[in-house]
Amino acid sequence: MDKLLNHPTSLKVLAVMIAILIWAVVHIDPETSPQSVTSNTDTKVIEAASIVVEGLDTDKYMLTAMEPTVARLVVEGRISSLLAANNDDYVVKLDLTGVESGIQELPLKAELPSGIREIEISPRIVLVHIEELETQTREVQVLTEGKPADGYLIGESSIIGDTGNVVEVTMPKDDYANLGMLAVTVDVTDASSTVVNKRAKVIAYDTKGSPMNNVTIVPDTLTAETKITLPAKEMPIQLRYTGALAEGFSLVSINTTQQSVTVNAAQATLDQMAMFDGFILDLSKVKESGEVLVKAEKVDGVAQVTPEEIAVNVVIEATEQRAMTNVPVSLIGLAEDKKASINNSSNGRINVLVKGAATLLQRLRTPDVKLSLDVTGLAEGTHELTIDAELPAYLQVTENDQYPLTVTVRISGTEELDALGEPIRNNGGSSGNTEPVPGNGTGSAGNSGSSNNNDPPEEDDEAVQATPQPSGNHGNGASGDDSIDENIEDASP
User: Fold this and answer.
1) Which secondary structure element, helix H or strand E, spans residue 133, and what is its range?
2) Where is the signal peptide (predicted)?
């Protein structure tokens, strides 16, 4: 052993080992050497942890303000626990159980994941404003945004569906003083037909038109529609009819209480229309007196008519005939240097047979029957002409062998005498510049003349015949698909 210690090499090795030991003693800190014991824990800071409110009686109260709305949270725990949790797991709660309305200061409480403890929460107290709620029933309006297609107008807007336009509004009681309206919005941009918004959100607006907060609306969506229309114009109606009554019946009157309708069409079309004549009554469907509903027919250029259907009161009676004697005939267009006679007669009168409803025939007087012959441009000589007749509405002349409508007209110079040696006179005639009297030319119905129904009956020499209507003749004078214009105001006798 002594030899080993005295050996030079052994001494060198021993010196190195002692040097290493001394270096270790000098450089190792005894206070940090146990670091391995506490290295599994750490701290974490959540700068903006959300504050969760609980316990508030939301049927009666509403939290309208809280300051601040987030809290700073410092926690400590195992590193593994801190890494496993995310920020949403660190909850700061505000318990409002039993709290009533008003401004109050209340404490916060942290709720942390397992294995983590709270070191600090800031602030620990928050200021809250709690208001009492009130529920009211209110109506909802419809607002529009955008502009429809060129030439179209925004029409009526409404809430449709089973729920109607009434909703329940819950908000702080004091805020009702600022509530302006509840409304949904329909976008009508470039629309040319009705626009429907099936899930229009109901929004509360204050008196200045700004959306309001802290409002609960039930239901919160509704179905709204806005009509997009062409320009409108109100105009009188002219009732027309087509077809024919059943054989043996005639019209007494057609009238309606609907005096006008609203017509939607392009402005150029409206400017050209003075009345609407799209209501056409089909007489073939009228079997008895009473009210008939007539729908508006499509008219070129007209998009809509309001109302689309009108009630028409129709009165019919059995057809009869009446002979009118010595009815004067007016000559139209006779030159000033000409004279004329009818059927070689100097008095210019003929007998005619009129058919129609008995009520109208009883009111008929000779002045109501306007007969005329157009002799414009006829040369001197004898001419066979058909008489034009104008009668009150729903009456017409008819002819048979006893009452023909074709007469012989003799035109001569002013110096010519008739068969009796008397100068030929123009009875009831007019000069060549006289306007023609409107008539149907064949005695058909639809003559636009009107009788004076208020005149008392007059005694005259007219022969009256009350006989059934001959087969094949219809009392209204309309047959096939022909339609006759009748202004409603003139429809009643």
Assistant:
1) strand 125-145
2) none
When divided into structural domains, the chain yields a total of 4
What is the pLDDT of the chain when averaged over all its residues? Answer: 80
Residue 27 confidence class, pLDDT cut points 50, 70, 90: low
For the chain, what is the largest distance between any 2 Cα atoms, rounded to a whole number of angstroms? 199
Residues 94/128, Cβ–Cβ less than 8 Å: yes
The pLDDT tens digits of the residues spanning 56-84 come to 888 889 888 999 988 998 988 888 888 88
> Can you give 418-470 as a three-state secondary structure string?
CCCCCECCCCCCCECCCCCCCCCCCCCCCCCECCCCCCCCCCCCCCCCCCCCC
Q: Are 175 and 237 in the same domain?
A: no
Backbone angles phi, psi at 186, to 5 degrees: -120, 125
Establish how many alpha carbons lie within 13 A of residue 157's alpha carbon, considering only the half-sphere containing its beta carbon: 22
Residues 220 and 356 in one domain: no
Which domain does 324 fall in, by range? 319-476
CA distance 295 to 261: 12
A 10 A CB-CB count for 369 gives 22
pLDDT at 453: 34
Helix (H, G, I), strand (E, B) or coil at 88: helix
Q: What is the CATH number of the domain that holds 186?
A: 2.170.120.40
